[in-house]
Amino acid sequence: MAILDRVSQLVRANVNDLIDRAEDPEKMLDQILRDMQSNITQARAQVASMIAQEKELEADFNQTQQLSGEWHDKATRAVTAGKDDLAREALRRQRDNDESSKLYAQQLDVQKQAVEKLKEQLRLLESKYQSTPSQRDTLVARQRRAQATKEVAQHVSVLSPLDPSAELDRMERKIRSNEAQAAAITEIGDTSYDAQFRELGDADIEQELQALKARAGQGESAGALSSGADATETADTTAETSTTSS
């Protein structure tokens, strides 16, 4: 028995799971509306039938009341005519109609109460049905928002290798790498330009150095010539002095 119970429970669980997954809230709400409409139609038919029964009971009650009165009149006329046997029979029939009238009155009272209860239930059902379409639209909108949110969450949580956001990040990293390489090449180019300018600057220095040496050499030659002229002049002056002394 325990195994059969477990198997039965497993079967019910699987069936319920299939039903839950196959259940579409929007379609279920539409079906609920159709069921409510069908229930209202059935309730109206039942109320109409109960009202018809009430009318029949009321007619039977009125008829027995009327017959009771007629047999009472007949009993009175029979007594007046001195026909006691007819009077007794009329009184018995009057009594039978009075008893039937009492039964019909009881049934009619019960029937009226039942009709009032059914009418109240019908009014409640119709009132509920009138407010259901707007509630249905609200629930459908909530279901659609929930489904859309669920789908978005599933796409976000399960990212594929070709996910657009991942590709965007990869492209950004690639662009940053290209920017860094361009900056490095620019920096290297600036250094080369500096070296070229330094080479140009060194050439100018060499030229200035050669010019300085040339000027220095010219200065030494002029000094030597000036020293030779001074020595000649000194020698001439000495000779003239010696001649004069002689």
Helix content: over 70%
Strand content: under 5%
The first-to-last residue Cα distance is 172 Å
Parts with pLDDT < 50 across at least 5 consecutive residues: 241-246
Alpha-beta classification = mainly alpha
Mean pLDDT: 76
Shape: rod-shaped
| Rg calculated over all Cα atoms | 65 Å
Secondary-structure element sequence? Answer: HHHH
The biggest sheet amounts to:
none
Number of helices: 4
Number of strands: 0
Notable characteristics:
mainly alpha; disordered C terminus
Task: Please give the structural blueprint.
Elements: H1 2-22, H2 25-81, H3 84-157, H4 164-245
Describe the structure.
This protein has helices at residues 2-22, 25-81, 84-157, 164-245. By secondary structure, the protein is mainly α. The protein has a domain at 9-150. The longest helix is centred in the C-terminal third of the chain and has 82 residues, at 164-245. The model is unreliable at 241-246 (pLDDT under 50).
Concise structural overview:
With 246 residues, this protein is mainly α. The chain is built from 4 helices and no strands. It is rod-shaped, with a radius of gyration of 65 Å.
